[in-house]
Amino acid sequence: MDGPRRAALTLSGAALARAALAGAAALDARRAGVPWRRMNFAGRPVTLLGGPALAASATATAVLGAPAGTRTAAAVVGAVSGLVGGYDDLA
After folding, report:
1. Three-class SS of residue 65?
2. Extents of the domains making up the chain
3. Is 83 helix (H, G, I), strand (E, B) or coil?
């Protein structure tokens, strides 16, 4: 991968991560975010929505950066790992 493509992929990944975290924050502010809220060890409220949001953005970035023949595999691996992580958070 050449330098300009790598830089574009890095910037795209950062933008996707920011957008995903903004979406997670918006969802957390609504009633739909309630199942994702917990109390941490210090008794402060936290949200677990950041994990699935970043898993989605990392998957999208991996698909964008993957060679042509491996994009589907990158999408499947990223999606499955994100779903398993989300299931673990909610279970």
Report:
1. helix
2. 3-90
3. helix
Which pLDDT score is estimated for 76?
A: 97
Q: How far is C-alpha 25 from the geometric centre of its chain's CA atoms?
A: 13
Q: How far apart are CA 71 and CA 45, in angstroms?
A: 37
CB atoms within 10 A of CB 68: 5
Q: CB atoms < 10 A from the CB of 78, how many? A: 20
Residue-wise pLDDT for 29-64, tens only, equals 999 999 999 999 999 999 999 999 999 999 999 999
Residue 22 in this model has a pLDDT that exceeds 80: yes
> What tens digit of pLDDT does each residue of 63-88 get?
999 999 999 999 999 999 999 999 99
- Asked whether 31 and 86 are in contact (CB, 8 A), the reply is no
* Structure-block tokens of residue 44: 């402060």
